[in-house]
Amino acid sequence: MASSESPENLLVGYDDRDSEPDEESLEENPISLKRSLGIPGGIAFLIGTIIGSGIFATPKWVLFYTGSVGMSLVMWAFCGVISLFGALCYCELGTLIPKSGGEYQYLLKAYGPLPAFMYSWMLVLFMRPASQIMVLLVFGAYTVEAFSPGCRSREEFVPLIKLLAAAALGVITFVNCASVKWATRIQIFFTGAKMIAIFMVVFTGIVRLAQGYTDAFENAFNGTSPEIGKFAFAFYNGLFSYDGWNQLNYVTEEIKNPNRNLPLTIFIGMPLVTASYLLVVTGYLTVLTPHEFLTTDAVAVTLANRLYGVMAWSIPILVACSTFGAANGGAFSGGRVAFAAAREGHLPRFLAMIHTKTRTPLPGLIFSSVISCVMIIPDSSSFEVLLNYMGFFTWFGFLLSI
């Protein structure tokens, strides 16, 4: 940002209330967002945003509510199919309405300015910051766990966990403000790191299955819950782990050739995520009995402590990398939400400004980061509390859009 140019020359407004951007105009307009996401970057962005803390935090609850190993695996597959269908619906919306902003843009087109205005404020002031903080709190907890096993659940370590979360948010915001390319490169790197964690668990599961550790899968459907309400809770927890399938629609204006690349990215990325989740849960169950699975607070860490010996620290580190990548993807799309709403006049106009050199919505990114930092301060800000508050609003927005 160091420059002799005045701030008004570095940040310029983008008024788009009277016209919709097409690919040619967006490429030629010097103050528009730059199309820099190809298929590899898009897949990394999609997978990196979806695979965060969920697959390491919620499998026990899916098993708890379904009541059996077999039904829990069916639930994971079902959640993956539902998420794929949702992503394909959003894919069509993204090609019909080629604007960044996701649900905000679709509500604006479908229901008019008032519902879109209300949703944009709810999204920017609560939903996006809450989602970001949830992931970063897990990042802080697993970073502490790597260096001091067993301490992430102790009360005295909560301030340190929140400090680490805030520091990570600062780094992510700086990178996303400085360069779209660097944000994409970081996303690709941390997506690779989380896939290493996934591969380690999957490989462990394959080896254990080959060695005959199949007790958990015998009579796999015994104990299946007969209560429909419990299946709803299992479905809710499973869907949380797939949350992020809509994120590409927040950055539609930065995808190269979106009519081609958006569907391809969805068709490649979503099956990879679903297959990874099924294999990871299978890997967990080759090491832990269903009872142990339900009584541990961190399934992946318990698995690592039992099998990896002195290398057990690697799993908490890789989980932290996974959540950092998810937070980076959330920041990337979150700044575009504020930008899109401000461009339509539904948020303060300065949030619609773009940095002329980096072509990033710098005010929107900083604004989202500040709201997230404020949200992390209260003692009541915890993963569980934020999940309970934001889950309903998130899926209500999906329902209205589709």
What layout of secondary structure does this protein have?
Blueprint: H1 7-10, E1 11-12, H2 23-28, H3 39-50, H4 54-57, H5 59-66, H6 69-96, H7 103-111, H8 113-147, H9 158-178, H10 180-210, H11 228-242, H12 258-287, H13 290-295, H14 299-307, H15 314-343, E2 354-355, H16 362-376, H17 383-401
Antiparallel strand pairs: 1-2
Helix pairs in contact: 3-10, 3-12, 3-15, 5-6, 5-11, 6-11, 6-12, 7-8, 7-17, 8-9, 8-15, 8-16, 8-17, 9-15, 9-16, 10-12, 10-15, 15-16
Structure commentary:
It is a single chain. The protein is mainly alpha-helical and 402 residues long. The chain has a single domain (39-401), classed as Up-down Bundle (Amino acid/polyamine transporter I), CATH 1.20.1740. It is 70% helix and 1% strand. The protein contains 17 helices and two strands. The protein has helices spanning 7-10, 23-28, 39-50, 54-57, 59-66, 69-96, 103-111, 113-147, 158-178, 180-210, 228-242, 258-287, 290-295, 299-307, 314-343, 362-376, 383-401, and strands at 11-12, 354-355. A two-stranded antiparallel ribbon has the order 1-2. The longest helix has 35 residues, at 113-147.
Summarize the structure.
The protein has helices spanning 7-10, 23-28, 39-50, 54-57, 59-66, 69-96, 103-111, 113-147, 158-178, 180-210, 228-242, 258-287, 290-295, 299-307, 314-343, 362-376, 383-401, and strands at residues 11-12, 354-355.
Mean pLDDT: 82
Largest sheet: 2 strands, antiparallel
Can you tell me the CATH class? Answer: Mainly Alpha
How far apart lie the N and C ends?
40 Å
- The secondary-structure class comes to mainly alpha
**Spans where pLDDT lies below 50 across 5 or more residues:** 1-8, 15-30
Number of helices: 17
The level of helicity is over 70%
- What shape does the CA trace take? globular
**Amount of beta strand:** under 5%
Order of helices and strands: HEHHHHHHHHHHHHHHEHH
What's the gyration radius in Å?
21 Å
The CATH architecture classification is Up-down Bundle
The tally of strands reads 2
**CATH H-level superfamily:** Amino acid/polyamine transporter I
